[in-house]
Design brief:
The chain has 5 helices and no strands. With about 190 residues, it is mainly alpha-helical. The N and C termini lie close together (about 10 Å). The radius of gyration is 21 Å and the shape is elongated.
Length: about 190
């Protein structure tokens, strides 16, 4: 109960994005306040979504108001931007525990059984997204020599969204698991 949950400074050079559990070194886990990774993910989500809306709006305007102008790249760009908006937002959902779940049966279970199931869910989530991360890196490597058809950018840029998203989902899932176990030990 004496473990403080806050963000410490790292030698005055900015905030630590993820902190370990070592009290001796003065490091603590931050899950309530924003860390630098969360801020970067939020900015990435915001920018990719705003640009997505702009590109789709541009596509609609040119299609219906200026039919002589054909912007073929907008469809591909909107796909990439949508993928990245989800890739940036999914780890944020993990950190804030905002993924959709069906908890009708879960809510009628006794507290001990709920704790066991929740622990198992965190472990399975970490294992699943570690696997997705590994295969996401391999998938991104496949796209290094491939170019997108209309924008002519390496497909590795689009494919790497899987590895990026799963890496941060794993990080936040581990932190959530640590906080959850600590809360169980403290009787919360």
């Amino acid at each position: 109960n004496n473990i403080v949950i806050r963000q410490n400074k790292l030698k005055g050079n900015g905030f630590m994005p993820f902190c370990a559990l070592s009290k001796a070194k003065g490091m603590v886990i931050n899950m309530r306040n924003k860390d630098i990774i969360e801020t970067i993910l939020e900015i990435g989500t915001f920018i990719s979504f705003i640009v997505l809306i702009t590109v789709v709006l541009l596509q609609v305007i040119t299609r219906f108001l200026i039919p002589s102008v054909t912007l073929v790249w907008t469809e591909e760009a909107s796909r990439f931007l949508f993928v990245y908006s989800v890739a940036f937002a999914a780890p944020l959902a993990m950190k804030k525990k905002e993924f959709v779940n069906v908890d009708i049966l879960f809510n009628i279970l006794p507290k001990t059984m709920k704790n066991i199931i929740e622990f198992i869910i965190y472990i399975i989530t970490v294992i699943l997204f570690v696997i997705v991360f590994i295969y996401g890196i391999q998938f991104a490597q496949l796209g290094i020599n491939q170019m997108s058809p209309t924008m002519h950018i390496p497909m590795a840029i689009a494919y790497s969204s899987i590895a990026i998203s799963s890496f941060f989902i794993v990080a936040y899932a581990i932190l959530n698991l640590i906080v959850y176990v600590r809360d169980i030990k403290n009787g919360r």
